[in-house]
Amino acid sequence: MKYFIIFILFSICTGFAFEESMPTYDMYPQDVRDEYSQYLREQEHLVLLSMLDSFTDKGFSYVVIHDSVDTEYPSWRYSEWLGYFYQSNSIWIFHPKLQWVYPYATHNGFWLWVESIGWIWTSKDCYPFFCKESGDKLYLYDTEGDGILYCYSSGALIKL
Questions:
Q1: Preceding omega of 128 cis (within 30 degrees of 0)
Q2: Distance CA 122, CA 132 (A)
Q3: 78: β partners
Q4: Distance of CA 12 to the CA centre of its chain
Q5: 137-141 contacts, C-beta under 8 A, 24 or more apart
């Protein structure tokens, strides 16, 4: 109790002056903040991989597209809106048209990393339409074999 009273008296006398000298995020140059952000993303990814490994060790599998169901083929799943896809032991999925995709679920859809074009967004209600991170609108043609996207802003066809 004695130390508590001393702390209160000290705080009142100094007015918590030490708070003004506390380091803040803004006091560092942008390159240091960017490097730290990248470090945090890498650490988050390592934690996620560790969690996935622990689930796999216990016989569970990670499923990104939650409204999908198992098929008769191991690791292949079916979604009414996305169709058939292969769910790997990590987050990556293989889609027959989009190829290898890194999906990131949001509250209203999915950001998908496609190596040849970068991040694209879609949802259950929008598919086969996509929106690129840059704002370009895309349409996935329903073709046999390779996936082909049509870019509305440039009029170009993008082979995946």
A1: yes
A2: 9
A3: 69, 84
A4: 46
A5: 140/97, 140/98
Strand runs labelled E in the chain: 69-70, 76-79, 83-87, 93-95, 99-106, 109-114, 118-122, 129-132, 137-140, 148-151, 157-159
pLDDT tens digits along 104-157:
888 889 999 999 899 999 999 999 999 998 999 999 998 777 889 999 999 999
Using 50, 70 and 90 to split pLDDT, how confident is the model at 15?
A: low
Q: What is the largest CA-CA distance in the chain?
A: 80
Q: How far apart are CA 100 and CA 112, in angstroms?
A: 10
Dist CA 34 CA 155 (whole Å): 35
Strands 137-140 and 83-87: unpaired
Specify the pLDDT at position 90.
79
Whole-angstrom distance, CA of residue 66 vs CA of residue 55: 16
Structure tokens at 119: 């991040």
DSSP reduced 3-state for 115: coil
